[in-house]
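Researcher: Next sequence.
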Amino acid sequence: MTTSLKRNDFNQGRRRMNGRAYRAQREDSIRRTVYVTEERLAGLFSGCGQVVDCRICGDPHSVLRFAFVEFAVEQGARAALNLGGTMLGYYPVRVLPSKTAILPVNPTFLPQSEDEREMCTRTVYCTNIDKKISQVEVKNFFESICGEVTRLRLLGDHVHSTRIAFVEFAMAESAIAALNCSGMIMGSQPVRVSPSKTPVRP
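Model: Next structure:
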C-alpha cells in the first residue's frame, strides 16, 4: 500500500534565487514544516498489523511526498486503507493500494552524498521492459507523460526475457508522476515502475 503526504508549497524556482533570498525562504519553510519520520509513519499504521518495512520517498521540498508501508500479512494492508483522511502532523494522509513491492537494495549502491540522495528523489526503477525497446524509446515514453528525462540507464542480458532501466528526471514531481505509469504497455509488455533507492551514476 502507499500513502501520499501533502505539505506546504515550496517555491519550485528556489534554485534561481540569490543566496540571501533562498536562505530566508528556506528558514520560513522550515518553520512551517512538520518532520515525519519513517518510525512515526510506521507507528500510525501499526494498529492495522505488524509493519515490516516503511519508506518515505520524494523530494522533501515538494508539495507532495509519498511512502510505502509493508505489512507482514495482506489483512494489515487492507485494514490500512481505512486510515485515509487520518491526520499526520497538520495534514490528512491519502492511503492507496500499492502497485509495487518495496525492493531490497545492496548497501553499496545506496546514495553516498547529499547530491546523490537528491538524485534519488528524481529517479525511478523500471522492470519488465520489452527487449525490443530501445533506450530512446524508453526516454520518449516517459518524457511524453511525465517530463524531461536527464539520465537513463537501460540494462539487460541474453538470459532474461525482459530488461530493466533507471530513469532520472529533471524534477522530483516527474518521478512521482512516473509511478502512475506502472502497468502501462511499453512495446508489448506492461512496465513496472518503483521509486529508486539508488542514483544513476555516470
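Model: The domain at 107-195 is CATH 3.30.70.330 (Alpha-Beta Plaits). Confidence is low (pLDDT under 50) at residues 1-17, 29-34.
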